Amino acid sequence: MQPVDLPTLRSFFHAAPFMVDLGVEPVGVGPGRVETELVIAARHRQHTGVVHAGVLASLADHTMGAAAQTLAPAGHWILTAELKTSLLRGADGEKLVCTAEVIKPGRRISFTEAEVHAVRGSERVLVMKASATMAVAEAKA
């Protein structure tokens, strides 16, 4: 297992250009658990005004992968093998908060789950639940 602190996790996220472009920021980490935030901007919205489902899915996917990465052996990467999302309602507000955790770690695959909440002031609304099967792959030199 690789010990992961918040600065290390931020470096991991900042090495992923798409996450940087979206504006995803890690705000919490523990073994098998990661929390991220995304400040909602106009570019994240679809034609109806709510946050695009692709933004929500990408946020959940990368956050779940990072949670699994905290439990991966040194020299291994986590890759998404299967992703399922359930959109519960349109996301609107000031920011999105995603909390992901590893439900069942494994040597070759891990199972993860995430919740995405839309936040406006003190109001926090659950907008998506997600789950993913993550493959544990040996990093290539």
Question: What overall form do the CA principal axes indicate?
Answer: globular
Over the alpha carbons, how many angstroms does the gyration radius reach? Answer: 15 Å
State the separation between the terminal residues, measured CA to CA. Answer: 19 Å
Class per helix and strand makeup:
alpha+beta
CATH fold-level name: Thiol Ester Dehydrase, Chain A
Strand tally is 6
Overall tally of domains: 1
CATH hierarchy class name: Alpha Beta
Poorly predicted ranges: none
The profile of the biggest β sheet is: 6 strands, antiparallel
Strand content: over 45%
**Which architecture per CATH?**
Roll
Largest sheet strand order: 1-2-4-5-6-3
How many individual helices?
3
The averaged pLDDT comes out at 95
How are helices and strands ordered from N to C? Answer: HHEEHEEEE
State the CATH superfamily name.
Hotdog Thioesterase
Helix fraction bin: 10-25%
Q: Can you offer a commentary on this structure?
A:
The structure is a single chain. This protein has 141 residues and is of the alpha+beta class. The protein has a single domain (6-138), classed as Thiol Ester Dehydrase, Chain A. The protein contains three helices and six strands, in the order H-H-E-E-H-E-E-E-E. It has helices at residues 6-14, 17-22, 53-69; strands at residues 24-30, 33-39, 76-87, 95-104, 109-120, 123-138. Strands 1-2-4-5-6-3 form a six-stranded antiparallel sheet. The longest helix is centred in the middle third of the chain and has 17 residues, at 53-69. The model has no long low-confidence stretch (mean pLDDT 95).
